[in-house]
Amino acid sequence: MGQGTSQFTDEELQDYEDLTYFTKKEVLHAHQKFKALAPEKVGHNRNAKLPMNKVLHYPELRVNPFGDRICKVFSSNQDGDCTFEDFLDMMSVFSDSTPKSVKAEHAFRVFDFDGDDMLGVRDLRETIDRLTAPHRLTDQEMAHLIQNILTEADLDDDGALSFAEFEQVIDRSPDFERMFKIQL
Ligand SMILES: [Ca+2]
Ligand SMILES: [Ca+2]
Questions:
Q1: How far is the CA of 2 from the centre of ligand 2 (A)?
Q2: How many CB atoms lie within 10 A of CB 165?
Q3: 159 exposed, middle or buried (CB, 10 Å; 0-12, 13-18, 19+)?
Q4: How confident is the model at residue 1 (pLDDT cuts 50, 70, 90)?
Q5: How many CB atoms lie within 10 A of CB 31?
Q6: Contact 96/181 with Cβ under 8 angstroms?
Q7: Domains contained in the chain, CATH given
Q8: pLDDT above 70 covers what percent of the chain?
Q9: Using an 8 Å Cβ cutoff, are 75 and 81 in contact?
Q10: How far is the CA of 166 from the centre of ligand 1 (A)?
Q11: Is-contact 78 72, C-beta < 8 A?
């Protein structure tokens, strides 16, 4: 059905199906989307590495306030540039069939701007800033909101959210799954 000549063997597709939450058909579909970002490059080399600014042309990433952070978290060399395999991982984590716990793990890394495995006050501030853009909270509103989050979720009172503490926040947020979804 107009799939054209596949750039993948059956075996490769089977591997991708085993490693992601996608069916083979969805893997091929993801590849079409990846190719559409840079047909000239990906046509030659199906796993070509695309610079982050190209990957950010993907419509759902372009409108996502964390688009650049998402690219960096999934990029195999953490600079935001993505190969097809990085992109496939990203789409798979954002798909409907992915368990909430897996999404939470990746969301935590997206929000952990300084990469110290904790969501500290600066991470929370940056996260809230992006979520509320283009409107900015006043310093006072921001401080108040962060204080509320910590009072509610910082169970060991160390002034930051560990992954376990963050997971509890996610469990109480009905909007989280909707936010962490990308339609392929
Ligand atoms: Ca951090
Ligand atoms: Ca804590």
A1: 53
A2: 19
A3: exposed
A4: very low
A5: 21
A6: yes
A7: 12-94 (1.10.238.10), 100-180 (1.10.238.10)
A8: 97
A9: yes
A10: 12
A11: yes
